[in-house]
Each structure stands twice: as structure tokens, then as C-alpha cells.
């Protein structure tokens, strides 16, 4: 023997005691009364249990009751009471067979009696959901839908406990168990099926919130938003957009659902864009949010920066034009708001608001920068087309800085083409 401390089962032989062997022999060959007399002379709990079992098989309930009481077997005594309450030998035989664990025999007895309901009850109590489903499938007429759903859930749990998620999906779908079905899809990492499941759920379903968190954890922004909104949780949808850096969508949701939270969220998004050097994207965001003065301020800053760096003047002009258009949009909104007020009061309020928010040049004269660069570009075009006098006159009308004006004048006076920084190209 290689491992004497851990012997194999086939190497172990069990020998019964002499009294136990003699009692078995008496029960088989002589009968129950002689075996009972033998146990009375040689009392032992094991012998009494053996006698009680034999009496149950023969439905000798008085002998079995006496034997169970002598070995202090309370469950056996409860069984005797239950057998007394049953009517019919077949039912008693089935109960005795169930007591000894012979469930196949019990089921056959029930089916032979045409008591399929008892067979279903037995298999349900045992948790044998596969057999329950088989019995339901062979039942004539309409099967119990609740029991069928319970059986499908049981089989789904059986496969889920063994990590066989693909097998569980089929039975959870039959049972309409959306929570467990979602768990299977999560374990299978089947995002497409999980999205389809979320779409099929009704509004305000408790599972939508959990699915939204799952979608958020894997970066599925749109699916997370849909799940949160269908669960009437717009704040969670906005937070999901922020967490996944979908700022534009977050602002749109905030505008549609929670107006008072637009401005803080907008400020965070603009700061995020400016940190990444995305000034034009920030301008677009302000324009979408109808924050025209803020958009104009960014455009003026960007145009001034481009002008100081002597970049393409046509681009600078376009930036000034866009800034001026944003200011005009701001004025248009103010005019529409003043319609319901008196003329005097509305004019005073409008002036105060403009002075407080924008201050001077940006609101009062938004076209100055665009006008200046327009004349500057026109003078350049006239000069290079052979019209130096017209270029000089146009240059004097420009509101650009003096150095740029002097460049035009110098070129006209010398009549020699020199390189001018900030050409049309």
C-alpha cells in the first residue's frame, strides 16, 4: 500500500457485528415478531433502527412506532404520524420509499396513480428542476406557468453555479429573469446583448440603474445615458458624460433637463478645452449654450493673439468677424427680451447689463477689428494690383496699428515691392 494513511475505498471492508448479522438473518428468514423478540433481548439503538426500517417496509406502523421510540428517533415518530394520516396503501408506500431515499420509486408510484401533481411536488422539493421541466412538458393541457418559470430559474442557477453562463442564458430567458440574464451577459462580456436587454426593459425598471453603471464602467457612454434617462436619472447621465469626457453631450443634457446646473458644467468644460488648447471648440460650446458674450470674448482674445504674432491677416479678420457676429447675437437676444418691458425701463436695464457684463469696446464697437483688417487687406490687394495711390488712401482709413500703416506708406513712396508681413496667403 503506497499511502496507508489514505487508503482507497475498495481496499476497505466493513464487517458487521454478530448481533447485527443475526438480526438481519431473522428479518429475512423468520419474520418480524421473532426479530422484535431478539432485539428486546439484545437492545441497542442500531438494532432498533434496523427493526423500525423493516417494520416500515411492511407497513407495520405499531412495531415501527415502538422501535423509533426505543432509539429516540424523533423524525421517525413524525413519519409514523404522517403515515397514519394518509389514506391508501400506495400513498403510504410512496412515503416510506421517500423516507429511505428511493425517489425514483416514489415518482413511479405517483405516476402510476395518475398523481402527476405529487410527482412535481416531490421533484420540486428535491430541487430536481430538470425532471420538473420534463414532467411539465409531458403534462396535458396548460402547465403551471409559475412552476415552469421556477424550474427554468433553477436550471439557470444550476449552470450559473458551475460558471456555464452560456447555458444559463437560455433558461433565464425562458424564465424572464432579467437580473440574472444581465449578470450572465456581464460575465460573458457580451456588450451587444446587454445593450439589447437594456433597450427591452420598461421605463423606470430597477435594473436600468445597474446597467447604466455597467455601461459607464466599460466606456459605453450613449448606452449609459439612455439607461439613466429611462430610469429618470438625468444627473447620473450628465455625470457619466463628464466622467467619459463627453462634455458637449453633458452640456446639452444639462440644458434640456437641469437648467440651473448648465453654467457650472459649462465652465468646467470650457476650462478643460482651454487647458488642451482647443479655443475654437470652447467658442463653439459657448455658441451652442447661447453664451454669446463669452464666445465673443474668446474670439477677440484669439484674434489679438494672432495679430500680435503676425499670422495670416485673413484669418485674423475672420476671427474678428466671428466675434462681432457673436456680439450681434447677444444684442438680438437683449432686444427680444425687452419687448415685454416699457421702452424707458428696458433701455436703462439693457445699458446697465451691457456695461456690467461686457464693458465698452467689445459690445459697443464689435466691428472695429474686422473693419481695420478689412481695409488693411484691401490696401494690400490694391497695391499688388498696381494701384499705389488707392492703396495709400485705403491704408489711411484702416484702424490697424501705426506700424502696419507705415508699411503701406513706405511701399507706396518707394514704388518698390518689398515683403509685407501678414500677406494674404
Automatic annotation (TrEMBL):
<dbReference type="GO" id="GO:0035721">
    <property type="term" value="P:intraciliary retrograde transport"/>
</dbReference>
<dbReference type="GO" id="GO:0097730">
    <property type="term" value="C:non-motile cilium"/>
</dbReference>
<dbReference type="Pfam" id="PF25768">
    <property type="entry name" value="TPR_IFT121"/>
</dbReference>
<dbReference type="GO" id="GO:0061512">
    <property type="term" value="P:protein localization to cilium"/>
</dbReference>
<feature type="domain" description="IFT121-like TPR repeats">
    <location>
        <begin position="364"/>
        <end position="394"/>
    </location>
</feature>
<dbReference type="Pfam" id="PF25170">
    <property type="entry name" value="TPR_WDR35"/>
</dbReference>
<dbReference type="InterPro" id="IPR057979">
    <property type="entry name" value="TPR_IFT121"/>
</dbReference>
<dbReference type="InterPro" id="IPR039857">
    <property type="entry name" value="Ift122/121"/>
</dbReference>
<keyword id="KW-0677">Repeat</keyword>
<dbReference type="InterPro" id="IPR056157">
    <property type="entry name" value="TPR_IFT80_172_dom"/>
</dbReference>
<dbReference type="InterPro" id="IPR057361">
    <property type="entry name" value="TPR_WDR35"/>
</dbReference>
<dbReference type="GO" id="GO:0030991">
    <property type="term" value="C:intraciliary transport particle A"/>
</dbReference>
<feature type="domain" description="IFT80/172/WDR35 TPR">
    <location>
        <begin position="47"/>
        <end position="139"/>
    </location>
</feature>
<dbReference type="Pfam" id="PF23387">
    <property type="entry name" value="TPR_IFT80_172"/>
</dbReference>
<dbReference type="GO" id="GO:1905515">
    <property type="term" value="P:non-motile cilium assembly"/>
</dbReference>
<protein>
    <submittedName>
        <fullName>WD repeat domain 35</fullName>
    </submittedName>
</protein>
<keyword id="KW-0853">WD repeat</keyword>
